[in-house]
Design goal:
about 220 residues, Nucleotidyltransferase, domain 5, 3 domains, five-stranded mixed β-sheet, 9 helices, about 40% helix, elongated
């Protein structure tokens, strides 16, 4: 009778990685799909789970070697809400302002972490950055002084218009509320200021003067 050794073995194949149930070809195809703007659910149409796609993505991140010898001449930085997998609520996105291409995404948008990240680039590389396009966050001034000695801050015009619009609306509401408890004439002013709020934000060159509304 054969002797019981209590040993086990695993079959090996050239089409599979060791201890992996997915073929090399499938892993490679999923890796290619991750280059495109697709959701994990779309990529999972290869009859794998979302978790499997995420696992392959994390493995790719481990092998990624950032190029710390290049920075674009114009770097656009903005913040966005992080996904649930991030420890920090807000992350940063960096875009090449001349090529209109994604440069990188920083998981942590805090100033200390951004300084730590960009200091990994050589001083020679950091001096090549000429324009840092951002919102009105005052902390970026310190980022310029510490990290990018040859760059100047350019405020994104979207944030300028957003800032103006926000304060204009606050002023409109403040004036509008003054007519809220007045007589009938003032009540009409209140309702017109409330109803036609979009008209006040419209470009004056595009306003139909024949259809203008009188507040009085």
């Amino acid at each position: 009778m054969p002797k019981l050794t209590r040993e086990t073995f695993v079959a090996h194949s050239s089409i599979l990685e060791n201890n992996c149930q997915l073929s090399r070809a499938l892993n490679y195809q999923i890796s290619l799909e991750l280059n495109y703007t697709l959701s994990k659910k779309d990529i999972a149409n290869f009859f794998v789970s979302n978790h499997t796609v995420l696992k392959i993505q994390k493995e790719l991140v481990k092998t990624h070697k950032p190029n710390f010898s290049y920075l674009p001449r114009v770097l656009c930085v903005d913040e966005f809400k992080s996904t649930s997998s991030c420890k920090i609520a807000m992350s940063s996105i960096c875009v090449d302002g001349e090529q209109n291409e994604l440069f990188e995404i920083l998981e942590d948008r805090r100033l200390s972490q951004q300084i730590k990240h960009f200091m990994r680039f050589s001083r020679k590389t950091r001096k090549k950055l000429k324009y840092l396009v951002m919102d009105m966050n005052a902390s970026y001034g310190q980022l310029i002084q510490t990290v990018f000695p040859c760059a100047v801050i350019v405020t994104n015009r979207f944030h300028i218009f957003q800032h103006i619009t926000r304060f204009f609306n606050q002023l409109r509401v403040k004036v509008m509320n003054q007519f809220r408890t007045g007589d009938t004439k003032e009540q009409k002013r209140y309702h017109r200021l409330k109803h036609y709020w979009k008209l006040f934000l419209k470009d004056s060159d595009k306003v139909d003067t024949d259809a203008s509304i009188e507040l009085g």
